[in-house]
What we know:
Strand order of the largest sheet: 2-5-1-6
Family: Belongs to the P(II) protein family.
Radius of gyration: 17 Å
Distance between the termini: 9 Å
Structural class: alpha+beta
Shape: elongated
Strand content: 35-45%
Subunit structure: Homotrimer.
Protein name: Nitrogen regulatory protein P-II
CATH topology: Alpha-Beta Plaits
GO cellular component, one term: cytosol
InterPro entries: N-reg_PII (IPR002187), N-reg_PII-like_a/b (IPR011322), N-reg_PII/ATP_PRibTrfase_C (IPR015867), N-reg_PII_CS (IPR017918), N-reg_PII_urydylation_site (IPR002332)
Amino acid sequence: MKLIIAAIKPFKLEEVREALTAIGVRGMMVTEIKGFGAQSGHTEIYRGAEYAVNFVPKVKLEIVVADGLADEVVETILKAAKTDKIGDGKIFVLDVNQAVRVRTGEAGDDAL
Length: 112
């Protein structure tokens, strides 16, 4: 099993969710986050005063899938979240040793 963590632009969330549902992803966790990378934040003007925004709002997706589906999930997120502008986000893929469904006690791929 693989854990796919993706940080994307918030306005792309629904488009990414629809694309992942279409390829068979049955669930994900979504968290609103703030961060910075190459974009390094920006400046904004609010009521005539300029101030620095050091952390940019993002949405973090956490998706656990069977090994065979991981590459397709990454490609789907890449296509759906891409705007060709700086700050599109990052995707990380990690190994998952175990998953257990709390309600039934099913483990491994059956828990997904």
